[in-house]
Structures are given as structure tokens and as C-alpha cells.
Specification:
By secondary structure, the chain is an alpha/beta fold. The protein has one domain (3-280): 3-Layer(aba) Sandwich (Rossmann fold). The chain has helices at 3-14, 58-64, 91-104, 117-128, 148-164, 167-177, 184-195, 199-211, 216-221, 239-248, 264-267, 269-280; strands spanning 22-25, 32-38, 42-47, 68-73, 110-115, 133-139, 226-231, 252-257. An eight-stranded mixed sheet has the order 1-2-4-3-5-6-7-8, sandwiched between helices. α2 packs across α12 and α3 crosses α4 (117-128). The longest helix is centred in the middle third of the chain and has 17 residues, at 148-164.
């Protein structure tokens, strides 16, 4: 993607929070899911990372819509979706949200892609809805459960955002999530997304991530194609975790993107998109 076009795209999204978004209302009318769909072809669901929303995937929409029916969504409480009151939302419950949206769109089977926490949800979806999973993209994520230390850290962070707001979390995430070469435009757009998230949604997700179990067996036994992507400068989930997942999954391919950190789709959109196209478009 040319730099000028990327800047244009980021600026466009910066001033339009609901670009292309639609809303799915659930039967009780008090819950709703904000989602976007573009393109035609094989259904491809993109599940965003913590603590962002579906705007994380804006660099993917233009490049992938020529090959796939691309669907993005705001997870419960994030972006424009309802929910997330501070109590834990498990990865399985987020996977249920994805399933509800697919049912609403009359999609029987899809490639499920997730980044970071989105990858945890993708694995939970595969485990729970195997017959609805056509393939898996695991970006900057891992199959291991949290250590006891990490669980305690997540709970402390959840309490902090509920009591004191999200500024400290944003500062820490901005310091670790991008590569040393990330542009100022990317930093500004990411910061904009982060500042719009609700403390209760972040607390729900933090507590939900702490509940997850190791899913190595899911990877080891799946027969669907798996694409594993990471960034060489990922400081949040080591690229070694991607290497370990690749070793577990007989049907996997591994891509390590240069000059990318924890949000590799964001920093290297062309290469990220092409990796997905190469594995799943044909």
C-alpha cells in the first residue's frame, strides 16, 4: 500500500467512526453488534485485537474485498457494540457473538481470522464450532493459557481501568504494540481508536482472557488450513509462540513479517493481506 493512500485511508477512518458499519440487533433489542461487510467470495471474518475495535481492520478491507466476503465486527462492548459491563466475557462467549453474526448473515461456514485476543477467540470458535470453520488465521497470538502471574496482572489492570480510567492502559499499549519504525500516522490512528474504548469493555475482556485454557490440542488435531502470522518486533506475544503453534499444527503455514510489531496487519497491510490471499483465496 502506498504511503499516501494509507495516510488518506487512516485520515478518512479517523473522522468517520462508523465507516461502512451496520448494526445487528438481537431479539431482545437491547443488545446489538456493529459490523461491516464488503466484497464477494469465501466468507472471511476478522476479529480485532484488545483493546481496539473493528477499525483495526480498515487496511484489510480494500485489499481483501476483491477475493473474499470480508466481515469485521466490534466485540461485545468495544466500538459501537453493546455489552461489556466489567464482568468477565470468556473467549467462548465472544465466539458465540461471531456465530450469532454469521447466522444473521446466513453464512454457514467461514474462514475465522483473529489478532491477539482475536486469535484466542478464533481458536475458541474452532473448538466450539468446528463444522463452521473453513480455515483459521492466527495473527500475533498464542495457544497457551495465562500464567498465574499474568492472571493477577490482568485483574489488577481491570480494577485500575474501572477505578481510574484507561489512560495508563493506553500509554502502556502504545509503548509496546508497534515496531520501532511505525509511522506517526499509524500511531495517531491507533491512539484514536484506543481512546474511544469503554473501561467496562476493557475490564470484561481482561477478565475473560484470564479465564481461557490452553488450546494447543485444538491446533494439533484440526484438519482445517491454518495460517499463522506474526511480526518480528512483537513485544507482547513473542514470535516464538507463533513458531510453537506452527510446530503443533500439521496444516499450518507460518509468516513472520519484517518491520511489524504486535499489530502486524496494521503496519504491514499489503504483506498481511497477500499472505491471507495466498493461502485461502484459491
Amino acid at each position: 500500500m502506498k504511503r499516501s493512500y494509507l495516510i488518506f485511508l487512516l485520515c478518512l477512518c479517523f473522522f468517520n467512526n462508523t465507516l461502512l458499519a451496520s448494526t445487528m440487533k438481537l431479539s431482545n433489542a437491547k443488545q446489538f453488534i456493529s459490523y461491516t461487510e464488503v466484497g464477494k467470495g469465501k466468507p472471511l471474518v476478522l476479529i480485532h485485537a484488545f483493546p481496539t475495535d473493528q477499525r483495526l481492520w480498515q487496511p484489510q478491507l480494500e485489499g481483501l474485498k476483491k477475493h473474499f466476503h470480508v466481515i469485521t465486527l466490534d466485540l461485545w462492548g468495544f466500538g459501537q457494540s453493546s455489552g461489556g459491563d466489567g464482568r468477565a466475557i470468556s473467549m467462548s462467549e465472544y465466539a458465540d457473538e461471531v456465530k450469532q453474526l454469521l447466522d444473521y448473515l446466513n453464512i454457514d461456514k467461514a474462514i475465522i481470522a483473529g489478532e491477539s485476543m482475536g486469535g484466542y477467540i478464533a481458536l475458541a470458535f474452532l473448538q466450539k464450532y468446528t463444522n463452521k470453520t473453513a480455515g483459521l488465521v492466527l495473527s500475533n497470538t498464542q495457544a497457551l493459557a495465562d500464567s498465574e502471574e499474568m492472571k493477577a496482572t490482568r485483574e489488577a489492570t481491570a480494577l485500575d481501568v474501572l477505578e481510574n480510567g484507561i489512560d495508563s492502559l493506553i500509554k502502556g499499549f502504545m509503548a509496546k504494540s508497534l515496531s520501532p519504525n511505525a509511522s506517526e500516522e499509524i500511531k495517531a490512528y491507533l491512539y484514536h481508536i484506543l481512546t474511544q474504548q469503554k473501561p467496562t469493555a476493557l475490564a470484561s475482556a481482561l477478565r475473560g482472557m484470564a479465564l481461557r485454557e490452553t488450546t494447543s490440542d485444538v491446533l494439533a488435531t484440526t484438519t482445517v488450513p491454518v495460517l499463522i502470522i506474526t511480526g518480528e518486533f512483537d513485544k507482547i506475544i513473542s514470535p516464538q509462540q507463533s513458531v510453537a503453534m506452527h510446530a503443533l499444527s500439521k496444516n499450518s503455514q507460518l509468516v513472520i513479517l519484517a518491520d511489524a510489531g504486535h499489530l502486524s496487519n496494521f503496519e504491514q497491510p499489503n504483506l498481511w493481506n497477500q499472505s491471507v490471499i495466498d493461502v485461502f483465496a484459491y
